[in-house]
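Re: export button greyed out
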Amino acid sequence: MVSTPVGVRKGAWTEEEDNLLRKCIDKYGEGKWHQVPLRAGLNRCRKSCRLRWLNYLRPNIKRGDFTPDEDDLIMRLHKLLGNRWSLISGRLPGRTANDVKNHWNSHLQKKVLAREEGRSKSQKTTILKPRPRTFKRIAPFSCRDKTTYEPNISITDQNSDNPSASSSKQVDDECTQWWSNLLDSVEIDGETEPGSNGISLELQEEDNGWNDFSLDMDILKLLSSENKRIN
DNA sequence: AACGATATCAACCGCCTCGTA
DNA sequence: GTACGAGGCGGTTGATATCGT
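Workaround output, generated via the alternate export path:
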């Protein structure tokens, strides 16, 4: 627990404070946030300085409305990662975790809930939650082959109480089902995307050099760290 | 025009992780 | 092994803007 120093200013930042912080970061670079208030001559705590920089002052921050593409990507990633806003925002150039979180809470959550409500009236969906996995050394989807996606993932279940062959197969099925659900069920404007059974990880390299599928390495990291934690 | 309800978003808080001594 | 501090994250709050009556 970090206690806030007594007498530290709170609340909205002034133009003057912004300028001081900008100058300080320009001069010393990002990081060493504990030194920033002193260096910048700001009566703010380190966290406040960091947040102001990351969410507002940093160059290349994209302001303004989220595009339908961004909305769609956020929904997909949220379905996959949950409230891992920093991971999600890492896939949205120019958007901060705070922006994504606010946008989700004020817009997308309702959209998704409404969609799911509509769906639950027509059909009952079984939600399969992913469990931590150990992937074999070369996971099939970790390659950057953009032409094929086969959710036939070869895994071993570290959580299984009885890791028999049959349960392993069942885990395979669950995992496959989970990936399929993810890829199938996100619709755009009420319609499944054309051309691929709803799978829209059609991978188009963007100007900035990243694409939807580049999330695979993060997800692998995520899964492997989760796995380490459990073991 | 006035007022309450609702939406938006910047900022804060508390917790967790990691590096280091 | 552990205590401590810094960095980072997600949840929540509160001020302000916008909308509806």
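The CA atoms of residues 23 and 29 of chain A lie 9 Å apart. The button fix ships in the next patch.
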